[in-house]
């Protein structure tokens, strides 16, 4: 949430050698349209189904981090015939403090994206990564503050009301749950619980990473994705 398909750039060279990769921007993000909010998670899930239909893709493997992982859980539970394998990274079936996201939506609508940027970045990366990789962090900051405020706020509202706990037991696709050791936004304990609820799910924990593990530890995350897809 708050980024674009560009966040997967570190994975592209390796993934695209083995599989056909399609990246997309959620509604309200990147170059996708920004319909007025509030949004619900099923709206984002149906956007994905419309994309797959337009590309004439009957069945895919899906990988998502954070918000993308939440959409992946929805797809697996509600449209199982469309899914081969699932990877969800640093995500949750419900938020620990949903009221925080409703508050953030109001803040962004009132004061714009820069008003939340630094607090969000501090939860996305470990302090050591922020000090050692300032150019990478600055690139992510630029993506974040360029996200349309209404798109971000409306998506915050979707997370505030999301609860997919009861849907997890319906997921039949082989699922890999990736957690980051130092994730503050979706702590690894949440991933452990989710992996226990999803039939046949496996859990992998990425050390020395926070919420954006795919950027902070790209090689480790890419390896886990490919290992599961194979």
Description:
- It is a single chain.
- The protein has 230 residues and is an alpha/beta fold.
- It has a single domain (5-85, 96-171, 197-202, 209-223), classed as Rossmann fold (3-Layer(aba) Sandwich).
- It has 11 helices and 4 strands, in the order ααβαβαααααβαβαα.
- It has helices spanning 12-18, 41-54, 67-78, 98-111, 114-124, 127-132, 134-146, 149-161, 188-197, 213-216, 218-229; strands at 60-65, 83-89, 175-180, 202-206.
- The protein has a 4-stranded parallel sheet, sandwiched between helices.
- Helix 3 (67-78) links the parallel strand 1 (60-65) and strand 2.
- Helix 2 (41-54) crosses helix 3 (67-78), helix 4 (98-111) runs antiparallel to helix 8 and helix 5 packs across helix 7.
- The two termini are 28 Å apart.
- The model has no long low-confidence stretch (mean pLDDT 97).
Provide a concise account of the structure shown.
With 230 residues, the chain is of the alpha/beta class. The chain has helices at residues 12-18, 41-54, 67-78, 98-111, 114-124, 127-132, 134-146, 149-161, 188-197, 213-216, 218-229, and strands at 60-65, 83-89, 175-180, 202-206.
Silhouette = globular
- Return the average pLDDT rounded to an integer: 97
Count up the domains.
Answer: 1
Order of helices and strands: HHEHEHHHHHEHEHH
Q: What fraction, in percent, of the residue positions are helical?
A: 40-55%
Strand numbers in spatial order across the main sheet: 1-2-3-4
Distance between the termini: 28 Å
Oligomer: single chain
Query: Over all CA atoms, what is the radius of gyration?
Result: 16 Å
**Which residue ranges are poorly predicted, with pLDDT under 50 across at least 5 consecutive positions?**
none
**Biggest sheet features:** 4 strands, parallel
CATH level-4 homologous superfamily = Alpha/Beta hydrolase fold, catalytic domain
Return the CATH topology: Rossmann fold
- By CATH reckoning, the class would read Alpha Beta
């Amino acid at each position: 949430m708050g980024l674009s398909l560009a966040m997967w750039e570190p994975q592209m060279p390796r993934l695209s050698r083995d599989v056909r990769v399609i990246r997309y921007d959620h509604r309200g993000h990147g170059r996708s349209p920004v319909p007025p909010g509030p949004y619900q998670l099923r709206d984002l899930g149906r956007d994905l189904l419309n994309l797959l239909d337009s590309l004439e893709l009957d069945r895919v493997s899906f990988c998502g981090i954070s918000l993308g992982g939440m959409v992946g859980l929805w797809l697996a539970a509600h449209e199982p015939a469309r899914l081969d394998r699932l990877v969800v990274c640093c995500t949750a079936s419900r938020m620990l403090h949903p009221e925080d996201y409703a508050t953030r939506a109001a803040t962004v609508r009132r004061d714009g994206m820069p008003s939340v940027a630094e607090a969000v970045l501090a939860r996305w990366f470990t302090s050591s990564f922020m000090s050692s990789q300032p150019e990478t962090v600055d690139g992510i900051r630029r993506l974040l503050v360029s996200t349309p405020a209404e798109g971000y706020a409306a998506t915050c509202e979707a997370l505030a009301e999301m609860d997919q706990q009861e849907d997890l037991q319906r997921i039949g696709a082989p699922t890999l749950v990736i957690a980051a050791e130092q994730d503050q936004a979706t702590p690894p304990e949440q991933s452990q619980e989710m992996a226990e609820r999803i039939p046949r799910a496996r859990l992998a924990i990425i050390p020395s990473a926070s919420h954006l593990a795919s950027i902070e530890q790209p090689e480790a995350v890419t390896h886990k994705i490919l290992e599961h897809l194979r």
